[in-house]
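Supplementary notes (optional reading)

For those who missed the lab, this is the record we used. Protein: Lipoprotein. Length: 450 residues.
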Amino acid sequence: MLPRWSIPLLLVMLAGCSGTTKSVRLHTGHGEPVVLTPRSGDAAPVELDEDAFVEAVEVLAQSVRPSTRPQETARRLFEVDSRSGSYRYEPRSHRVIPLGPGEHLEGEPPAAEVALTRAYLRWCERTSRPGDCLRLLVESPTVTGDGRYALAMALAQGVVWDEMMDAFKDMADPEAMLSAVLWTWTTYCILLAVPEPFSKGVAAVMTASLIAYVGVDTFWSLIVGFKRLVEEAERATTFDELREAGERYGKVMGRNAARAFAMLAMAAIGNTAAGLGSKVPKLPGAAQAAVQAEAQVGIRLAAVADVGTVAVSAETVTITLAPGAVAMTARGTGGGTAAKARPTGYRAWGSFSGFKKAMGPAGPEQEWHHIVEQTPGNVKRFGPQALHNTENVIPLDRALHSDVSAFYSSIRRDITGSPLTVRQWLSTQSYEAQRDFGLLAIKNVGKGLW
């Protein structure tokens, strides 16, 4: 559990993020850590279109039962101690200090908190959600402490917020679901901005997944931007000032990163690290994120649940894999970039040779792998571009790729219930079924379960 929030903020990141090369240290449990230094601009947030995002959030929400105390639930999810009230930011010591009972920030008497709370309730009413629409007043009679950050985050999300409301519109209590995502997102950001030496469990898996979706540079920008949001939210005395702070952070995020962040927060609600890890490879954009996971942090997205801990400093993200996990990258590479710059965003080709010409080698000790296999039958049924694209072809460790291929050529009645080989049995199924099975095969073969 975290101490009671007198931990220094990572203000050193403001200097570290501006001109220092970021690196990722991957501890695999075998020999020296693998160090990757992704070049600036090599990765960008995975492109998520509105329809895919809304559909994914809607599907994820169907397995979630929102709590009446979403802030408390989010704290339990990330193993965070409770805190409340106002905080004083000290620039020299880089500390956020909780104020004692009856104390208030200089220049911000209780009346200002009351006025901010009234403005928040009016905003809820204007957005056709009268009352405490974000559940900011469950643990405090006024919008203060973490409630300020949560409100600013809601104001930062703009159109993404409307898209989530569209996903929840047919649910019994869409506001409760929206609040659950908001508090999960906000609590996770607080955990990163005011961290213990390392994040673990659901937070660690979410961090590794988020980096895969947005890249190392954008991930650092999200942390630094949220730290600024904390400072500005503490200084704000009016709703308009809080809105401006939120909108500035919204520009730091951008729409694609905000969608990825919201989608991962939705997937994390009520989950374990293993549960979240199993959902991530099935989310929209996962194939592109898998490529970035390999290049940026040296791990297989299909095995992201194997991330044990993540530590963030001014210059380095340190990822430690759980015992027995398989790292994607070659040991001792000293850099996470391929010799040839790869296209970003979704791309498809009419042949595998065209894909390889555009994308280049899969990487040291790696080979390209089709999640849905490029068998003649699949080419005829689905078309070549459904197979040779950046969402279906991913880099795999060479040994793992060989093991997966051997598994497909084997007869496994215990898994398929068929006398046919796995490949023959799978070939009659839909594209979606083959893809789901392919992702599961990578995971289970990698863990030695199949």
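If you only remember one thing from this example: Confidence is low (pLDDT under 50) at residues 1-19, 84-102, 328-345.
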